[in-house]
């Protein structure tokens, strides 16, 4: 029997550790005026005072396992390059910025020199202004051209919210310049009647990689005047373009460069990230051009108090009688309630859409008991909302109408929410880069800030709140991507051929794998070679072949059955686990039950209800080895890396009581299986090793299963992923290896780099796994060590002590300090 743990989906990638100082990833203060309401006349309490109030309740103080203090820092000013137009400098000064920080001036200098540059300084260090000033100056020059179009700029953001926020900033800054700067957002929410005007007249177009891939590049003849004049491409929050998503975006950018060259343009790339290691290397890999790095942060920094918070154990028992901690969701809701009552402007970052909705609902109910008007000042913000709902929430947050917001990572990136005092992080977000990015949302007007990481009942979270050095003494992860991944490159070659026929001259642009893939695309009748060029000959849109965010197809529409009203959407890849029949679906504080999931029409019908539980899907997984790329001995056992095929099927769902997480029951489901070809790392052990570890056949399955769960939980410490992005299978006798085997695989077609990183850090990764299991205070295993929240077998069987002995024996044979390295 195989024991498994399946990912929910994957958009991150492998990231080896870096030696970049952690000072580049801590929150920094912007060099602009605070946008706090004029009514906020009372001095704000210090971050330490706010934390003391949060910890003043019964047993609250004991929940803080560590407090990190990041001291304030003075800034270093410079002067703008003399080539910047005086009108731009005057506009900046009117916005309250007399002088730039030194790093802003350096970025502007590189941009004016025609050099691609990445600015990798802290959150709220003024990166936007660093690229905006040279860009607006160049656009102002171009506005005096005879045809009136002059130079153009393309801005790329990973989220619609960030693009909309940046458009507001550009309009405010350029307003005194009249009609010379014409910014416009061009994305899926842009009304059809506005799109033609944008193509013809806008000179600063803000969009996202999805729209560039699906809308702009395939329609490049209609964008010819814009592309011909393209001088700058701004890529904001560039560290988010990692793994498979980043690899897709890298190929989209190569297609953009190819079309620009066709129209006689060679744009300069300006990239920005608050949390990037080796930024010039990552930016060069993303864009395919040489990129200069500016990483010396000269902005001032307010005081940051960063607390690690572990919820207490409850009197409830989980699966197999394991002790259960209070959920991070309930704990964060309490903290958000307390902060709101104190008038502290806060954002709670939550990993899931459902979690964001739950925290919002719980906080609203508790605030209503204190003051009904306060309940209206807390809301949820997540992907899947309709455009008008997102914009209304963004306006309310900007105005201060909202005091508290429970948000997914849709609000993590760059959106200027100045004036926040505190950030709550419900569960480790998967990487140190994301942790600092979220923490940096507070204190963006220069004041001190509080950040609190609330641990989930999870091996990695438990490890981190008791080993703060793993967070605060380590650099952020490197951004790694693989544009040559054939699963990524092939559809983009088709899209490129549809835009302009491919020739051998394009091989250098698209990479060495291009020449090898073209004959395969010909054989599949996707491309046809005529003379010296490859052409797309099908009627379908070639761009539709590449699903750049790995969402698995057409989004599922969530529709209220009684009214036919569209509530929102769910990614196709997540539909089986989140909107199956009987699932609890939350939207804007209202609870719905899924009545029917129609996979053919991609529709989930829901009806409003108030069940006293949440739902969690269960699944089963089998795995087969397709090819072993690398294999090394670990004593008598083997450590391997290669290609696998994973077959998964959602078979049931659990109903868990709200707040406590107590399991109320399980219901069967009948959903079709899904297959995935991906990359995996796996290890085997022999009979002799089992004897040495005192593992008999009765406990073998439980020992392997426990080691698999814990290793999945610990891998995010070594690769830029989270446990939902990777999957695992453990088998007492696998048919391909003929030995007891544990697999950990990437949850994305073709792989995302996580398994490869695991292979190269296997000794450190598995040793940390062994330590995490051994150090846990429970007797037989719990969610803090070996139980998985998504185990398809209901966490049965598991054997904690057997897993420790098994990993100890396996590690005895690890070659050298770094195992596979």
TrEMBL record:
Q: Which domain of life is it from?
A: Bacteria
Q: Which residues form the Helicase C-terminal domain?
A: 331-487
* Region listing for Disordered, in residue ranges: 28-76
Q: Which SMART domains match?
A: DEXDc, HELICc
Q: Which UniProt keywords apply?
A: ATP-binding, Helicase, Hydrolase, Nucleotide-binding
Q: Pinpoint the Helicase ATP-binding domain residues.
A: 108-294
Is Secreted among the key words of this record?
A: no
**A GO MF label:** helicase activity
Matching InterPro entries, A to Z? DEAD/DEAH_box_helicase_dom, Helicase_ATP-bd, Helicase_C-like, Helicase_put_actinobac, HRQ1_WHD, MZB, P-loop_NTPase
Q: Which Pfam families match?
A: DEAD, Helicase_C, MZB, WHD_HRQ1
This one is known as DEAD/DEAH box helicase
Q: What organism is the protein native to?
A: Streptomyces neyagawaensis
């Amino acid at each position: 029997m195989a024991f498994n743990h399946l990912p929910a989906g994957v958009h991150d990638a492998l990231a080896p550790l870096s030696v970049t100082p952690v000072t580049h990833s801590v929150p920094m203060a912007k060099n602009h005026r605070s946008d706090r309401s004029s009514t906020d006349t009372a001095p704000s309490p210090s971050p330490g005072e706010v934390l003391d109030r949060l910890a003043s309740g019964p047993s609250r103080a004991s929940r803080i396992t560590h407090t990190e203090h990041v001291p304030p820092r003075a800034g270093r000013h410079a002067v703008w390059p003399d080539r910047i137009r005086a009108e731009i400098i005057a506009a900046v000064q009117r916005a309250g910025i007399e002088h730039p920080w030194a790093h802003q001036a350096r970025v502007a200098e590189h941009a004016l020199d025609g050099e691609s540059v990445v600015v990798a300084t802290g959150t709220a260090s003024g990166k936007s202004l660093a690229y905006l000033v040279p860009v607006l100056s160049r656009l102002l020059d171009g506005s005096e051209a005879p045809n009136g179009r002059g130079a153009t700029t393309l801005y790329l953001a990973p989220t619609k919210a960030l693009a909309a926020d940046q458009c507001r900033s550009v309009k405010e800054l350029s307003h005194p310049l009249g009609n010379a700067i014409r910014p416009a957002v061009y994305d899926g929410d842009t009304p059809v009647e506005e799109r033609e005007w944008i193509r013809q007249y806008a000179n600063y177009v803000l969009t996202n990689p999805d729209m560039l891939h699906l809308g702009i590049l395939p329609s490049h003849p209609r964008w010819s005047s814009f592309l011909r004049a393209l001088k700058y491409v701004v890529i904001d929050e560039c560290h988010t373009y990692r793994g498979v998503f980043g690899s897709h975006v890298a190929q989209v950018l190569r297609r953009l460069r190819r079309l620009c060259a066709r129209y006689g343009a060679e744009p300069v790339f300006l990239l920005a990230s608050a949390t990037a290691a080796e930024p010039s290397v990552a930016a060069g890999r993303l864009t395919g051009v040489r990129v200069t790095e500016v990483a010396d942060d000269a902005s001032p920094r307010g005081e940051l108090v960063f607390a690690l918070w572990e919820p207490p154990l409850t009197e409830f028992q989980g699966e197999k009688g394991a002790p259960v901690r209070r959920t991070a969701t309930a704990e964060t809701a309490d903290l958000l309630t307390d902060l709101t009552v104190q008038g502290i402007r806060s954002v709670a970052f939550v990993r899931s859409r459902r979690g964001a909705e739950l925290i919002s609902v719980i906080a609203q109910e508790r605030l209503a008991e204190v003051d009904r008007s306060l309940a209206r000042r807390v809301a949820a913000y997540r992907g899947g909302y309709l455009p008008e709902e997102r914009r209304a929430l963004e306006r309310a947050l900007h105005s201060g109408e909202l005091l508290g917001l429970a948000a997914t990572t849709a609000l993590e990136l760059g959106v200027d929410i100045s004036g926040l005092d505190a950030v709550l992080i419900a569960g480790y977000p998967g990487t140190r880069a994301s942790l600092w990015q979220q923490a940096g949302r507070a204190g963006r007007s220069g004041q001190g800030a509080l950040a609190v990481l609330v641990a989930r009942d999870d091996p990695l979270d438990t490890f981190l709140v008791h080993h703060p050095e793993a967070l605060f003494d380590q650099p952020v992860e490197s951004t790694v991507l693989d544009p040559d991944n054939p699963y990524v490159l092939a559809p983009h070659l088709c899209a490129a051929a549809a835009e302009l026929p491919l020739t051998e001259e394009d091989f250098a642009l698209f990479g060495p794998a291009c020449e090898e893939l073209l004959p395969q695309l010909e054989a599949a009748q996707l491309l046809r070679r005529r003379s010296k060029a490859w052409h797309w000959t099908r009627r379908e849109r070639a761009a539709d072949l590449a699903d750049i965010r790995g969402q698995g197809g057409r989004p599922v529409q969530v529709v209220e059955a009684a009214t036919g009203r569209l509530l929102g959407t769910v990614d196709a890849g997540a539909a089986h686990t989140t909107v199956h029949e009987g699932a609890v679906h939350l939207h804007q504080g209202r609870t719905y039950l899924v009545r029917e999931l129609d996979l053919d029409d991609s529709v989930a019908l829901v009806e409003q209800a108030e069940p006293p539980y949440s739902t969690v899907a269960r699944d089963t997984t089998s795995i087969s080895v397709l090819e072993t790329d690398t294999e090394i001995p670990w004593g008598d056992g083997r450590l391997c890396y290669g290609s696998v095929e994973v077959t998964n099927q959602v078979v049931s769902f659990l109903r868990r009581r709200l707040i406590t997480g107590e399991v109320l029951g399980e219901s069967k489901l009948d959903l079709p299986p899904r297959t995935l070809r991906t990359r995996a790392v796996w290890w085997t052990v022999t009979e002799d090793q089992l004897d040495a570890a005192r593992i008999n056949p009765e406990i073998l399955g439980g020992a392997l299963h426990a080691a698999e769960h814990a290793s999945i939980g610990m891998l995010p410490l070594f690769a830029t992923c989270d446990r939902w992005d990777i999957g695992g299978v453990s088998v007492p006798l696998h048919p391909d290896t003929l030995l007891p085997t544990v697999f950990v695989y990437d949850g994305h077609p073709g792989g995302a780099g996580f398994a490869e990183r695991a292979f190269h850090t296997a000794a450190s990764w598995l040793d940390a796994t062994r330590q995490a299991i051994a150090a846990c205070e429970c007797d037989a295993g719990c969610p803090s060590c070996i139980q998985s929240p998504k185990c398809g077998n209901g966490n049965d069987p598991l054997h904690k002590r057997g897993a420790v002995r098994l990993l100890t024996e396996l590690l005895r044979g690890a070659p050298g300090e770094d195992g596979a390295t």
